[in-house]
Fold:
Amino acid sequence: MELEFLGTGAGVPAKHRNVTSIALRLLDERNAVWLFDCGEGTQMQILHSTIRPRKIEKIFITHLHGDHIYGLPGLISSRSFQGGDTPLEIYGPKGIKAYIQTVLRISQTKVSYPLHFFEIEEEGILFKDQQFEVSCLPLDHGIDSFGYRIVEASHQGELQVQALLELGLKPGPVFGRLKKVK
Ligand SMILES: [Zn+2]
Structure:
């Protein structure tokens, strides 16, 4: 799990600091990337990274100010051009769906993959599977805003088999018992 800052600026892009977008790289965990906000120019920032747009599985938008969403339609469109065929989930405050659908309709953009919207109106759990749980909490920013919390499920550590063999242990049920020791 790795965080990559694609932009940490606010308001307008600066030459050496783009507007907001943060990538949570979960390539080892689920062969996917999650994005948090997608300000204008995020696509260009992605080009300077090793992130593949088709690997972006979920996008979480904190709020609908332009510096957090003006990059989203372009990224959605490019993900399609670049062969993305897996679904993309977009989470954000009420209005995010109308914003994207309006831009795609007016620009006559066809997207080659399913686009799912989850509009948030209150705190709660947004997503949960065996690996991760994502919940949100309202923030105070003058417009509906949400912070996101990602919790990874606890899992068993890796058993260092070679080290156990060197200690003279023989493979068998004891290995399983050792693996469960916290
Ligand atoms: Zn704002």
